[in-house]
Predict the structure.
Amino acid sequence: MRDIFDAELNLFVRPDVIASLHENLPMFRDEMFDEVVCDHVFEHMNGEQVKNAVHAIRRVLKKPDGVLVVETPNMSGIARAWIEKQYPERELQKWIHGEDLGGPFDGHRYSYSPESLRAVLEEGSMKIIQEIDKGLAIRMYATPWG
């Protein structure tokens, strides 16, 4: 059985650990986790913070088989949906800017296309093993390499 930790800055979800991904996760030892899931997290950090987060995640993932799962809004898909009027504009605005849920990290600070997300992960010494285009979102699975 695998241990599961919820590390969050959002105290409303009652996390197991209060942590900032971009601060090296000092509470976790090297190669501690089989999998790290960042589900709609990266877009809430600036570019430098995301680079630091990928580095920290790579450190805590087991080598060579640990998996990072990242899902973030897909700006290419959102732009396509906007042009083709596939969704109401108000709905697409939420995907672009985020929602105000009363927290300090609600707004989106950075946007990703599949190409830019791939580049950030690869620059952080992560190898993409699967990529799923979900239309308005992109999901990537990556393992540490190098």
Remarks:
- The chain has one domain: 35-144.
- The chain has a mean pLDDT of 88.
